Amino acid sequence: MLLAHRSRSRSRDADRPALWLAASAGAAGAIAARALLPRVLMVKVRRDVRALNAGDYERLLASFADGAVLHFNDGEHRWAGEHRGKAAIAAFLRNFVAAGLQGEMRELFVAGPLWRLTLIARFDDAAHDRAGEELYRNRTVLLARTRWGRIVSQEDFYEDTKRIDVLEARLTERGVAPSA
Fold this sequence. Notes:
The chain has helices at 2-53, 58-61, 86-98, 162-173; strands at 64-72, 81-84, 101-111, 118-128, 134-147, 150-158. The chain is of the alpha+beta class. It has one domain (37-173): Nuclear Transport Factor 2, Chain: A, CATH 3.10.450.50.
């Protein structure tokens, strides 16, 4: 009986390095995957923003959940307020494109578990008229919360919200009406 116990004990001792190695490899893989996540997301977001800059807002819209809410600062402009649901967010993005805005994702920070990420991004945007005159330039911080890979809530914070009002006036002067 004692002999059988010793051989089982030696067998478990022999398995410990293999178990430790497997656990270490799994942990290292998880850490590496987590470290790559912001880079992978940045590639995706930059691709979506390039499409938006080219007039295709559908790629970016697909990132939002059906009941998502986009919060934008209040004011007397076409982007003001809360945009609830994909149809409202699509109208917001159509107005972005119609205004000739061009954006660039500068930085992206990611926190939380994969099924409930929080993303913070620096996004700069500008608009020029057909003659090349700059109508608008601003820096933004976007705070997005996701569930299972879809944005459920996004808030946009601008360096200077008065610039948006000036852009609205310049667009109105040029006959660029808000889209429905």
